TrEMBL record:
MF terms (GO), sorted A to Z: transferase activity
Keywords, alphabetical: Transferase
Protein name (Swiss-Prot/TrEMBL): Glycosyl transferase
Length: 406
């Protein structure tokens, strides 16, 4: 376990892993009446056939304190939606499936499109956005958590640890980010966080000067973790991006609206492994190349809002600073791997850094060419103002799909 020195900006809860899961769950059971808890699972249909999801459902079936589980299902035709209903029927908790490709939810999307508020990109961000809107429409949950659906080392402890800081009656947290040690199979993982985000944040500090927002991001042990929880008051007020910048975008919105004292991070797993994206060096619109470009742009947009002026010269300087810092980190990761008896291919690490350098420059070029790009989806307060019956439409669409399809 990590040490207990609280010398960072963000409150860090280290020791929950030392307690039996049954103790955590018993406390959460006591608090569920005052703070009903809803878990959101954004997934692709293909993940139901993957190596992780069957175990995730088996583990979730043991969780006693959840008020509801909301599943966002992407890339599924009607037959696959029927199979998904059967797949999740093992869950004893109340659960709903948002068939995002179905005609009823597409009709809701069309209504939002007519007022200029429909998500512009397919993907995880859009899936999460609709699931959170549905949770608001239900109106029962007071806390919501989200995690990915490709975690092959999944244990139900993750859910309890995510909800604990938000549900505890004497804690003051509005948002909680999960973190975990990114190593599995004798290898260091987490390439985007290790080799892009960490050195890029520090390079931006060097090039643009000290920045409170960058300090905030650098306080998180794993800012790209797909696991987080928050109060429902946060859900209605924040905007989230529809591209690969989801995790950084959410942190940016939380930083904009809440003081550091209302934000924490929690150690949620001793071991964590999930599906790994390809580097996609030859395809800028796929894999880690697309992800790293979107993440870089999310930083540039946020800093521009704070008054930082970018130019081609700034991006060339940033490229040089990032490259040197990233290579220095490769040395440290190599030493860390060696002392722990793990493998780390320095050549592949440096190839990844070189690819990320190209992505940073591509992101800079795209930002300069279209500084008005709006990847953020509207918050649900604005959507409700523009389409007052949108919650009823969401509820009706999901209810009719559940009743009539299959």
């Amino acid at each position: 376990m990590s040490d207990f020195f609280q010398n960072g900006r963000i409150g860090t809860l280290h020791n929950l892993g030392d307690r039996p899961i049954e103790e955590l769950e018993a406390e959460l059971m006591q608090w569920r009446q005052q703070k009903p808890m809803c878990l959101v699972l954004p997934c692709l249909y293909s993940e139901l056939e993957g190596p992780a999801m069957d175990n995730i459902v088996e583990e979730l079936a043991k969780v006693p304190f959840l008020d509801e589980i909301i599943i966002g299902l992407d890339r599924a035709d009607e037959e696959q939606y029927k199979k998904a209903k059967a797949f999740f029927s093992r869950l004893p908790q109340k659960h709903s499936i948002l068939w995002n490709d179905g005609p009823r939810l597409r009709a809701v999307d069309k209504i939002l499109e007519e007022v200029g508020l429909a998500p512009q990109q397919m993907g995880k961000g859009r899936n999460v956005w609709y699931c959170l809107g549905y949770a608001l429409a239900k109106g029962r949950a007071r806390a919501v958590a989200l995690h990915d659906c490709d975690i092959v080392t999944y244990k139900r402890d993750i859910v309890a640890k995510l909800f604990y800081p938000i549900a505890h009656p004497t804690f003051n947290y509005m948002f909680c980010k999960g973190y975990y040690y990114r190593a599995a199979g004798g290898k260091l993982n987490g390439r985007v966080s290790r080799l892009l985000v960490s050195p890029l944040v520090r390079a931006l500090q060097k090039v643009c000067g000290h920045n409170d927002y960058l300090d905030f991001i650098d306080s998180f042990r794993y800012p790209l973790a797909g696991e987080f929880s928050m109060s429902m008051d946060v859900v209605s007020s924040i905007r989230i991006p529809s591209d690969w910048g989801l995790e950084i975008g959410v942190l940016s919105e939380v930083n904009r609206r809440y003081s550091d004292e209302r934000v924490c991070q929690v150690d949620i797993a001793d071991a964590y492994d999930h599906k790994h994206q390809d580097l996609s060096a030859d395809n800028p619109d796929g894999g880690l190349s697309k992800m790293s470009t979107d993440i870089s742009k999310s930083f540039f947009r946020k800093l521009a809002i704070k008054g930082v002026v970018f130019s081609p010269e700034v991006f060339r300087t940033l490229k040089a600073s990032y490259y040197r810092l990233a290579l220095d980190l490769v040395d440290r990761y190599h030493n860390d791997a060696v002392i722990n008896g793990m493998a780390l291919d320095r050549n592949k690490e440096e190839e990844t850094v070189e690819q990320f350098t190209k992505c940073i420059m591509r992101a800079g070029e795209q930002f300069l060419n279209d500084p008005t790009e709006r990847p953020f989806m509207a918050n649900w307060s604005r959507v409700l103002s523009a389409v007052p019956d949108v919650y009823q439409r969401l509820l009706q669409a999901v209810e009719e799909d559940t009743r009539d399809v299959g």
